[in-house]
Amino acid sequence: MSKIEMRAVYAEELKKLMQKDQNVVVIDADLAKANGTWALRNDFPDRAIDVGVAEQNMMGIAAGLASYGFKPYINSFAPFSTRRICDQITLSGCYAKQNVKIIGSDPGISAELNGGTHMGLEDIGVIRSIPDIVIFEPVDTIQFRKAMPVIYDYDGVVYIRMFRKIIEDVFTEDYEFDLFKADKIKDGKDVSIFASGIMVQESIRALEILKNEGVDAELINIHTIKPIDKDAILQSVAKTKCAVTCENHNIIGGLFSAVSEVLIQNAPTPVLPIGINDTFGEVGKMPYLKNLYKLNAQDIVNKCLEVIKLK
Amino acid sequence: MDLTDTCKNIREDTVRCIASIGVGHIGGCLSMVEILATLYFKEMNIDPNNPKMEGRDRLIVSKGHAGPAVYATLANRGYFSKDLLLTLNQSGTALPSHCDMNRTVGIDMTTGSLGQGFSCAVGAALGSKIKKDGAYVYAIIGDGESQEGQIWEAAMFAASKKLNNLIAFTDYNGMQIDGMTEDVNGLEPLADKWKGFGWNTYEVDGHDLDQLATAIKNAKAQDKPTMIIAKTIKGKGVSFVEEKGFANHNMPFKEEDLAKAIKEIRG
Fold first, then answer.
1. Same fold, A6-162 and A183-308
2. A60, B154: Cβ pair inside 8 Å?
3. How far apart, in Å, are the Cα atoms of B242 and each of B186, B233, B236, B264?
């Protein structure tokens, strides 16, 4: 278990970038404390901006700053930094080719006690249909720390779907990050599990149960959902001939859709989803919500056993 | 050249531009010609030979559908050849209906989804303050566009941060696509709204070059952002366009209309 929260890693890495590059600015919309960016305003009073509760304007100001040569990082909870400002991201950001990084925190069920209104279960679907955007969902603090400088170097709009708090480590310090290449976490031959975000940790637990069931599953972390690593998906199913996707998101528009789009066009393969089955979120702690939406390791196991029969 | 003559040239080239494709947002183009002429030929620190010059003044036309008037102004100012104006909206053109900074030399921001450009202008003005480059950022918004909530989010922030390098215009022609602005979703009292949001505000005749110049001069002496509410006539300068009223927002304008329009403009 990491001892540091994801948002703290974000703030530490952002601080390094702001120290290195006078053009990096951070923009909050009245959630600076929640997103870990609060202290940056002490270090960089000119470049840590709070626009108040006005997310549309936050994206517009970011685009205007980017047109002036700045590299803005804008922050809010996942539904408000995507769904709420979809048109601003699309036009002022992507269409206008402005270099803005967008952080959406507390994705999906990790919004917990903020409940259904704050539970972004469609953000990937909304954002994925916009051209020229990268969608990145870090899986742990080790990966996120390595990703921040790489994302900084990428000249274009990136949406970072950031779990905020303490999360179990998946990687070790020798991990090498590539923004556009998925991570193979375990080799296997019977079924491919493609997972993202918090569902990677859940899938790792599923691997143990599957092993006891005599199933040799392959686990791949899809940290970049757009553009998705087609080669990793196709190479895996060439071996396993079936797949399960695991996501903390509606199964419409998210990882299941993205993986299915790759498979159906290149190597039609049975694929079944673990994810939220087209319903809204609701208030609750993560264990309750995982049970409610069938996001537990045993659910992944059951889905793997089911899809293997479809081969 | 006299600025009045420049306005005539911009108007003529705007109607030529729109006539080349036979349809366009002619009303809201012709209503803001004097604002464009004042900015590009009198006020703005720019260099057509170095359109990305550091520290230059910028104009963000948030009512992005007025692209043809901006293109006519840029062509007259020497950013590109007037021949290009006749490619408006043609396949693969560098001059799309709505302003696009990645396609057209001299355009400072991509606009077209109303309200967004104004936020971008606020961002650019903030950028200039951070860089301390002394630049001015100008913005033109539509009156109908002022019904967008994002305009007022941006207004509040610009005043809060005392962005006195931001000078904005409302092209107040009183019309929008579905009717008279006051009938569709009234803006009045508009000047009071801007004052209430913490802006310095002037109301001028948007076709009076002296009034525009005076307002800009006074705006530059302020310690807060300025909104210049420019009372204008939608379709100004071409009687048969003006007479269409709010139907002139986006209307057919054919080659055969051109000679009559130019005669009136030159009048």
1. yes
2. yes
3. 21, 7, 6, 12
Domain spanning A183-308: CATH 3.40.50.920: yes
| A47 neighbourhood in chain B, CB within 8 Å | 130
How many cross-chain Cβ pairs, A to B, lie less than 8 Å apart? 102
CB contact under 8 A, A64 and B115: no
Q: How many CB atoms lie within 10 A of CB B52?
A: 10
Say whether B127 and A64 touch across the interface (CB within 8 A): yes
Q: Under an 8 A CB cutoff, do A65 and B124 touch?
A: yes
CA distance B192 to chain A (A): 22
Q: In whole angstroms, give the CA distance from residue A226 to residue A111.
A: 23
A 190-219: CB under 8 A from B: none
**Which of A61, A63, A68 shows the shortest C-beta gap to B128?**
A68
Interface test with A, best of B122, B126, B162 (most A CBs within 10 A): B126
Residues in A closer than 8 angstroms to B134, CB to CB, are none
ipTM: 0.95
- Interface residue A296 vs chain B (CB under 8 A): no
CB contact under 8 A, B122 and A91: no
The domain covering A6-162 belongs, at the CATH homologous superfamily level, to Thiamin diphosphate (ThDP)-binding fold, Pyr/PP domains (3.40.50.970)
What is the distance in angstroms between the Cα of B63 and the nearest Cα belonging to chain A? Answer: 14
CA distance readout (Å), A257 to A41, A267, A273, B67: 39, 15, 9, 38
The domain ranges of chain A are: 6-162, 183-308
Inter-helix orientation angle A198-212/A297-308, to 10°: 60
Q: By CB neighbour count within 10 A (0-12 exposed, 13-18 middle, 19+ buried), where does B87 fall?
A: middle
Q: What is the pTM of this model?
A: 0.96
Q: Output b/e per residue, B12-35; b: 16+ Cβ within 10 A.
A: bbbbbbbbbbeebbbbbbbbbbbb
Domains, chain B, ordered by start: 3-266 (3.40.50.970)
Cα–Cα distance measured from residue B175 to residue A193, given in angstroms and rounded to the nearest whole number: 57
Report the half-sphere exposure of B217 (CA within 13 A, side-chain side). Answer: 7
**Is A68–B124 a contact, with Cβ atoms under 8 angstroms apart?**
yes
Pairing mode, if any, of strands A101-105 and A71-77? parallel
Can you give the pLDDT of all 311 residues of chain A as single tens digits?
678 999 999 999 999 999 999 999 999 999 999 999 999 999 999 999 999 999 999 999 999 999 999 999 999 999 999 999 999 999 999 999 999 999 999 999 999 999 999 999 999 999 999 999 999 999 999 999 999 999 999 999 999 999 999 999 999 999 999 999 999 999 999 999 999 999 999 999 999 999 999 999 999 999 999 999 999 999 999 999 999 999 999 999 999 999 999 999 999 999 999 999 999 999 999 999 999 999 999 999 999 999 999 99
- Beta-carbon contacts of B86 under 8 Å, excluding residues fewer than 6 positions away, are B16, B17, B20
Interface check for B126 against chain A (CB to CB < 8 A): the answer is yes
Q: Does the distance separating the beta carbons of B113 and A64 come in below 8 Å?
A: no
